[in-house]
Amino acid sequence: MSGVTAQGYVAQDLPEILADIQVRMIDLFGADVIQTAQSPLGQINGLMADLIAEAEERNAALYAALDANQAEGAQLDRIGALRGLLRSLGQSDASFTRVISNQGQTRFGMADVLQAVRSVDGVTWASVKENATSFTDASGIPAHTLAFAAIGGLDGAAQLVAIGGAVLVVLAALWIMRERLKKWANGDR
Questions:
Q1: C-alpha closest to that of 100 among 62, 69, 61
Q2: Cβ contacts of residue 81 below 8 Å, gap of 6+?
């Protein structure tokens, strides 16, 4: 079977695809179906296998094109742009790849905090809203605050502790980002 795995995109090769098609035809038409290379069904099988193999090659190429660890140059810049990242002047491909993939860094983001809340035992739904403005928003969320809502999980006190922990993670992430921005603004890149 083809698809994305922990090792990347794994494509089926032509013989595997053809064998899979032939097995499906036997399941569909019975064991007596004629599938030799010269038979009409064998010809159709071969054509379908070729088309699927070409699609597998395109899928593998597309996967590689969007993988920061396999990209370089302008394609790496495009992948960075998808994440909202711009390459610093003179920054090497290897250095920019580490930035894109957060290699060697702890990753903090709103999605990570929300995932942490959702991973609390028993939580069936969770949401977070950020007010990054300098004033209380229309929902009543104070300035520079994250508001969490969760259904299920631990008892009320334990939920507050879990959410408080998530807020501390966000505050730590914001502090780290502030320090990095200070360094960047001072030219230390």
A1: 69
A2: none
Range of the domain at 87: 70-105
Beta strands at 123-131 and 145-152: parallel, antiparallel or unpaired: antiparallel
Nearest 5°: phi and psi at 28?
Answer: -80, -45
Measure the CA–CA gap between 106 and 79, rounded to whole angstroms: 20
pLDDT at 152: 75
| Number of domains present in the structure of the chain | 3
Nearest Cα to Cα of residue 21 among 65, 69, 53, 55: 53
Is the Cβ–Cβ distance between 53 and 14 less than 8 Å?
yes
* 3-class SS of residue 153: coil
- Single out the residue of 117, 102, 101 nearest to residue 170, CA to CA: 117
CA 143 – CA 96 distance, rounded (Å)? 33
The pTM of this model reads 0.48
DSSP-derived 3-state class of residue 33: coil
The tens digit of pLDDT for each residue in 46-83 reads: 999 999 999 988 888 888 878 888 888 888 888 888 87
129 shares a domain with 96: no
**Together in a domain, 60 and 74:** no
3-state secondary structure of 112: helix
**3-class DSSP state of 3:** strand
Which residue spans within the chain are E strands per DSSP?
A: 3-5, 8-10, 123-131, 145-152
